[in-house]
């Protein structure tokens, strides 16, 4: 059989195939109903949420008894138009071949399982309606990211996953080593001798591709990364994963203001793509996960994001009569409850908060003239909180060096990072969008574990 002879259910239901005879479909059985003279099987092949209805006119001639829910089958037959039903095509099955049986203890029987339970069987959950939709949605939105940047002539770059630095300086790096834990080589001072490790220095999994993206932006102009990032942050929340995907554009000759414009345009384009190109998925989320989600997303496309400085945001919080668990005062890092108040109660739409105190932000951010704040921006959305963090970068060699010294960073280790400030330095800016946070926002799914196929979180790395 030629690969292209096999038809996808999506194409069949969308009436995209020309020959209605001798069609071959392969998929997994969802339901089966057998009576004396006729049988019906619904199969799903993962190409769409919808199942294809198979009609079997002489049940006795087929191995129907062995075909249970979950089994994989190959069916040959012809397509028939039908009227007055949800789907206007069904397939009259002429030959049915069992590819893989599914014993009756197949766990996904026709009943609704909780998301908590489905996380424990993540190896099978993509075969449910919800997680089929989630996985297809992830795929489509990934495409949307690439399409957006391709059309803007950004270069898609690949930054390393194993690094010797901590881009965010937050100390949340997973170590990468081949040293023998039972026999660690020590220096004379009694410390672990990383010279004897695989890379001859201490290395870990990247927390962000930004630093390398900056190197390439100052050569290629506009670039972006889209890859996995890792954080050994021990926060067991519904919004944090230890491995998540981040989209990080980095633009040369670009300041904070210009970057915020791009940020908003990017988000709105992704939302537009979701509504227009991922109709089936948005319909599903709107019906089963959060009613009204689609209209909410549409409204955002039409309206402007709020823009507010950190200092103004603090004033809003101080002047509110809301009782916060974490007291508000200038200089604090905004907690989730503060972010939620701002975006859900006060602005009631996505907002960009910018110019944060330098003490609570990363070393590479550009210092403002007040010498107290840096040109950082976070994009906050209702329900999810922070989905983007970004900044204009410190492009002045001396300023950056001083800041790194203040923070006791090893300058030698970051010589290359300082170098691009030495030779043809330019104002440049970039941000990181958490892909899972974006998916949560668009879908209304409440837990990050349910928008990534195989989540890694503290205490959990199965599958
Ligand atoms: O704010 P963050 O830490 O910024 C950076 O890493 C910058 N280097 C980005 C840049 O300027 N190029 O992370 C960016 C985004 C957050 O806004 C959030 O959406 C997501 O990444 N994120 C997480 N998503 C899931 N689980 C986690 N543990 C996350 N940590 C950050
Ligand atoms: Mg952040």
From TrEMBL:
<dbReference type="Pfam" id="PF01336">
    <property type="entry name" value="tRNA_anti-codon"/>
</dbReference>
<protein>
    <recommendedName>
        <fullName>Asparagine--tRNA ligase</fullName>
        <ecNumber>6.1.1.22</ecNumber>
    </recommendedName>
</protein>
<dbReference type="InterPro" id="IPR004522">
    <property type="entry name" value="Asn-tRNA-ligase"/>
</dbReference>
<comment type="similarity">
    <text>Belongs to the class-II aminoacyl-tRNA synthetase family.</text>
</comment>
<dbReference type="GO" id="GO:0003676">
    <property type="term" value="F:nucleic acid binding"/>
</dbReference>
<dbReference type="InterPro" id="IPR012340">
    <property type="entry name" value="NA-bd_OB-fold"/>
</dbReference>
<dbReference type="InterPro" id="IPR006195">
    <property type="entry name" value="aa-tRNA-synth_II"/>
</dbReference>
<dbReference type="InterPro" id="IPR045864">
    <property type="entry name" value="aa-tRNA-synth_II/BPL/LPL"/>
</dbReference>
<feature type="domain" description="Aminoacyl-transfer RNA synthetases class-II family profile">
    <location>
        <begin position="136"/>
        <end position="458"/>
    </location>
</feature>
<dbReference type="GO" id="GO:0005737">
    <property type="term" value="C:cytoplasm"/>
</dbReference>
<keyword id="KW-0175">Coiled coil</keyword>
<dbReference type="GO" id="GO:0005524">
    <property type="term" value="F:ATP binding"/>
</dbReference>
<dbReference type="GO" id="GO:0140096">
    <property type="term" value="F:catalytic activity, acting on a protein"/>
</dbReference>
<feature type="coiled-coil region">
    <location>
        <begin position="390"/>
        <end position="417"/>
    </location>
</feature>
<keyword id="KW-0030">Aminoacyl-tRNA synthetase</keyword>
<keyword id="KW-0436">Ligase</keyword>
<keyword id="KW-0067">ATP-binding</keyword>
<dbReference type="GO" id="GO:0016740">
    <property type="term" value="F:transferase activity"/>
</dbReference>
<dbReference type="GO" id="GO:0004816">
    <property type="term" value="F:asparagine-tRNA ligase activity"/>
</dbReference>
<keyword id="KW-0963">Cytoplasm</keyword>
<dbReference type="InterPro" id="IPR002312">
    <property type="entry name" value="Asp/Asn-tRNA-synth_IIb"/>
</dbReference>
<comment type="subunit">
    <text>Homodimer.</text>
</comment>
<dbReference type="InterPro" id="IPR004365">
    <property type="entry name" value="NA-bd_OB_tRNA"/>
</dbReference>
<dbReference type="InterPro" id="IPR004364">
    <property type="entry name" value="Aa-tRNA-synt_II"/>
</dbReference>
<keyword id="KW-0648">Protein biosynthesis</keyword>
<dbReference type="Pfam" id="PF00152">
    <property type="entry name" value="tRNA-synt_2"/>
</dbReference>
<dbReference type="GO" id="GO:0006421">
    <property type="term" value="P:asparaginyl-tRNA aminoacylation"/>
</dbReference>
<keyword id="KW-0547">Nucleotide-binding</keyword>
